[in-house]
Specification:
The chain is mostly helical. 72% of the residues lie in helices and 7% in strands. The chain is globular, with a radius of gyration of 18 Å.
Length: 241
């Protein structure tokens, strides 16, 4: 069986397992936060201005920004899904190096920056406050085992959401190309049809997922066989889902 097929099958199985975890829905907002933060960071890097970010109760979000160069709409539009996929891979890469604490600190700092600078709606601010507080409790008082398992829950949920979000946008682009969030806005900016962008997001998410799972299983193998090497004027309004 190919590694790609194994990646897909593992992700499907992981979705079923993580849905059994109490309050897993709460932690799935992490992917949305990273997605919107990616749009905001790209906007600032391209000398634009972030107006605000909103996180909603249905796990969706929106970033409103002002950019001065029309071509900037493309990298800003790409940044959301691609940032979420890359960040999921990063979480697993840090786990493979037993740096769960550093990874959780990074996640918490992103949440703090989002709350302080960007997120302005009531629900988003409430979720970020709760998430930051919970992370602080785990970092300060959690045992090493608690920290490890808490981190892995965040990592797997972020990985699943990065892939399922990309799959969702592709399905939406195929059926309602004018209402497919980032894919629609990228189509308007580039002239390339929304389904093409949807395919790109999904393929990129799957590639990052494959690399993330290689980090995860590579670490497990290295523990079983210590001798093996580790493998190791106003544009914007990019909206998720």
């Amino acid at each position: 069986m190919s590694k790609w097929m194994l990646t897909v099958l593992f992700l499907i199985g992981s979705v079923f397992v993580t849905n059994l975890i109490p309050f897993s829905s709460f932690f799935r907002y992490l992917d949305t936060m990273i997605h919107e933060f990616g749009h905001a960071a790209a906007t600032l890097l391209l000398s634009g201005k972030v107006m605000y970010i909103e996180l909603y109760a249905d796990h969706s979000g929106v970033t409103r920004s002002l950019i001065t160069k029309p071509w900037s709409r493309i990298p800003v539009g790409l940044a959301g899904y691609m940032s979420a996929s890359l960040f999921a891979w990063l979480l697993f890469a840090l786990n493979a190096r037993s740096r769960q604490k550093q990874g959780l600190i990074a996640v918490t700092l992103l949440a703090v920056v989002s709350l302080a600078l960007f997120v302005r709606n009531g629900y988003g601010m409430m979720w970020l406050t709760g998430f930051i507080a919970l992370n602080a409790v785990v970092l300060v008082w959690g045992s090493r085992v608690v920290l490890k398992w808490y981190y892995l829950i965040l990592a797997f949920l972020t990985l699943e959401e990065s892939v399922s979000g990309a799959l969702y946008i592709l399905i939406l682009a195929l059926n309602r190309p004018g209402q497919a969030g980032d894919a629609t806005l990228l189509a308007q900016a580039s002239g390339i049809p929304a389904p093409v962008w949807g395919v790109w997001f999904l393929l990129f998410a799957l590639w990052c997922a494959k690399r993330a799972l290689q980090c995860f299983f590579g670490k497990r193998r290295s523990r079983s066989h210590p001798g093996e090497r580790e493998m190791g004027n106003a544009y914007g309004g990019y909206e998720r889902r």
